[in-house]
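Field reference: sequence -> structure
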Amino acid sequence: MVMGFFSRKKSDSTTTKVSIQREGFAHIRQISEAVTTMPWGLSLLSLAWTAGPVTLLAAQLSYVLGYNKAPTQENLMFFIIYTIITGVAGIVAQVVYRLTRVPKLEEEKRRVSLVLEQLPELRWQVLDLHTHQHDPEQRQRYVAKLLLQKADLDPESLKQATYDLTQNKAFARLISQIEIYRQVGMDRRIDDLVESQRFLIRHVLVQLESVEPDAIPYLRTRLQGDSPDQKVGMPRQENFIERIFAAIEEENDLLMSDEDVEEMIVLAFELLCGRKIPMLTFTYRGRWELATALDKMERNRSEYRIAQATGLSRIRALASFINQQYLLQRTSEEEEIEQLQINQSADILVENTERYMDECASRLSEYCRQAKRKRADADKEWIREQARQLGEALNLWKEIRRAYEHIGRMHVQLLKASQRWEKFVDTFSVSDTKLQIGSGHRGLTVTEKSIYLDEEAISEVCARLNDFLVKHKLTPEDQNLARNKTLRGRVERSLLPEDHITPEIAKQLAIEIALALEPHILLSRPEIQRAIYSTNAIYMNDIEPGMSAATKTAMGRAMANEKRHDLSVAAERLALALVKHYQVELGEDAIAFLRDTYHARESRLNMLSQFTTSRERKVSYLNLRPPVVAAPKRDWYKALIEARRLRD
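Structure field:
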């Protein structure tokens, strides 16, 4: 067993502004390797003293000890001239260093400070961008969920957030009262309130189940007298890294969502603040045939998972695009629009998106035919907009079809690799496929590693992100200038403020972050992605807009240090993969080890061990067929051709 050792630093609970500023600036200085700020005069005096009298005295003493006599006048003159030349050379070197290296270090410090200051700001702006896709009622509930996730929310703000979410004044007042008693540790009083209002609580939660089920866990936490735990962190979106790399590969940023951008910003910030993300991997020691088969099986399974995630992300990207078009076509704020549910299964999404494209093509074709028949002036702007929507949807449909064709090819390769692995497992000794505990020389071995950025990597990533922020005018100075112009009325009012990141630039930022991290942590590798998905992100909701760079850095670094190194989910995922896909036996000693070392749930591990009691092949996700994505219909192409002829 290869074990990794982690040291957890106990941070002081003091959170005054002074200590936060000092800690933040200390981290920035550490990253940029800034030299000590010794005054020029003192530095030169120290160098002159060392290269002058000290050197001369050392030379004379060495001569006396070596020759047992005082140095001659010629030797003494040599020592004096040598000392003067050495001192002058040292002073010149110090001056040159100060004139060249120090400005570079200061510039590096400035870049690191700017990136760490701006990433949390951009995260809030991206979260605000996501609300633009919703109607006012959905936007109200979405922002209420964000407020409920803040650890330091005061009772009055918590009351307002709960009311925005539930539209129930009595329930909002109850949550506010619970928060007041929570702050003074009166748990028994909280129990009394919950018991007296259990019918109200049940009524509100049942109503919320059909409207905003994602918010129920946050309310249950508040009802129990708890607030969000900063040490636990925030859950991540599954497969957000695959979607961003798919957008890079296909050169189509529609394949990623605003949530993916937000997740990538959080990942970059926590790594730049010193976060170490634990990961579990496994290797094989023994027969090379089994090792080769295992490597091929792991590689093909990872490629298949990525292909599946890519295909689903393309379907959801098309559904999100359709929802945006529905909102743009709405004639009034009160008009109800039935949007597609992004979290539905791929089959249902394919069916609904195909119906939208049929309707869009039919509407466009019918308008073009009537315009030709009546010989009336056509609304070319409307035709151009409808053709644009249908054309972009058609391109996304083609991407979906190509993605699922790729899934089919990966499916065949994975089946072959799986059959090859099972063949070797049946041929060789059973002990070769056991999860080894201890220092054995054969079998599968679990290894514990970490994903992190060292100081040099942090500096390089910040340099690249700084260039991006400067190029796209996303620095604090640029955004403050745009904000001041808006306040003075020198720019036209629009839905999106001038000092706000745009959706297009936000997605480019996510891509830039992925490309900046790739050389240092190999973000595109499947095992790295699985490790990131197995852990929660650091808690960033208490880093508010407008805080200084040092304050944000200090809070981010403190949360990165305090973030629990929870490997329980990673251990359970590893056990599931070994048992289900590699036919590895999970014995009692392995269960005890994963339970005691990584705190994996014993009930979950016991259930997985039952999976291996029989060597018969179970029903696998490999046997599930992906949704049928038909070829683009001729009617869609015909509608685009008719629109182009009439428009031109």
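Note: Residues 1-22, 31-38, 429-440, 613-623 have pLDDT under 50 and may be disordered.
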